[in-house]
Amino acid sequence: xxxxxxxxxxxxxxxxxxxxxxxxxxxxxxxxxxxxxxxxxxxxxxxxxxxxxxxxxxxxxxxxxxxxxxxxxxxxxxxxxxxxxxxxxxxxxxxxxxxxxxxxxxxxxxxxxxxxxxxxxxxxxxxxxxxxxxxxxxxxxxxxxxxxxxxxxxxxxxxxxxxxxxxxxxxxxxxxxxxxxxxxxxxxxxxxxxxxxxxxxxxxxxxxxxxxxxxxxxxxxxxxxxxxxxxxxxxxxxxxxxxxxxxxxxxxxxxxxxxxxxxxxxxxxxxxxxxxxxxxxxxxxxxxxxxxxxxxxxxxxxxxxxxxxxxxxxxxxxxxxxxxxxxxxxxxxxxxxxxxxxxxxxxxxxxxxxxxxxxx
Length: 360
Description:
Layout: H1 5-18, H2 22-31, H3 48-65, H4 80-83, H5 86-111, H6 117-123, E1 147-152, E2 158-163, E3 167-172, E4 184-188, E5 190-193, E6 196-199, E7 204-209, E8 215-220, E9 224-229, E10 234-239, E11 245-250, E12 256-261, E13 266-270, E14 275-280, E15 287-292, E16 297-302, E17 307-311, E18 319-321, E19 328-333, E20 340-344, E21 349-353, E22 356-359
Helix pairs in contact: 1-2, 3-5
GO molecular function: transcription corepressor activity
Region (Disordered): 100-121
Organism: Araneus ventricosus (Orbweaver spider)
C-alpha cells in the first residue's frame, strides 16, 4: 500500500469543497498546488475522504473485537479520536479480552450444573436481526455505483432510484422480471462537451415524483435538475444552480419544482417550461433541504444553521428560524403546514409553530 501527499491533499481539498468550506478549499488548493497534480477529479467519488476514514475505523474496531482464535466479541462503537490514540485502542482490546474470558467462565460454570442458568439467559443481549429469505425479497440490479435515494411513484408500481453512476432508473415492480437488468429504464444524466453529449460522471442524489405520478424530477451533482416522463424520456433540463443540487421537491399542484444547492440558493422552477421563476439567495452557506408549505411557500435549511420560510413573489424571507447550533440537515412541514420540524448535527430536533419552539 502506498499513497502520495498529492493524493491526501486532493482528498482534503474535495472534503472542504463538499462541506461548504469554499474559502478554505480555495486557499488550501492554492497552497497545496492542487491544479498541478495529475489526479482526475471526475473519477474520485464524493465523500472519498470520509469513506476511507470510515473503512480505517472499521478495521481498527475489527482488530479490537476479533481475537487470535477468530472469535468475535461485541464492543461499543469506537470514536475517530479514540481510534488514533494507541492507549485508547489498547484499553479497548483489554476490555474485550476480559469480557470474552468472563463469558467463557460463566458458560463453564453453567455447564457444571450451577443454578441460575435461566436467569443468565434472560439477562443476555439478544441479537434480534432477521435475515429476509431470498423468496421474500426482490433485488434490483443494474446500478454501477452506490445507490443514494429511491422514491415510489404515487399512482403506480414504479420505483425510481438515483446513483453515483450518473443515472436514475425507473423499475416496474408490477413485473415479476423487475430484477433483471433488461427491465429497467435508464435515465442517463449527460452534459454537453465539445458539441456532443457525454455522461456527467456526477451523482444523482435527489429525486421526486409529481403528485399524479406522470413526471419524475431528478437533481444531480452536475448542477442540473431534470424532468423525465415515466417512459424514460427527458422532458426538460433546469440549469441555473452553480454547483451540486442537494434536494428538490414538486409542489402538490404539480406546476412548480423547488430545489436547493451548494451555491447557497433555492430556486422555484416552472415545471412546464423548465424556466427559473424565482431564485432565493438568503442563506450564507449551502442549502441542504427544502419542503413546500403551500403551493407557493416553502422552508429551506442550510449549513448556516438557519431556516428561512419564503414565498413566491416575495423578495425576502417571510420568517427566519434560528436556534440550531450546527448544520440543519433536513426539514419537514406537517400536513397542515402549521408545524415545521427540523433536525441538525447539534443532536436535536426542533418543532416550530410561529414563534413557539419545542425542542426534542
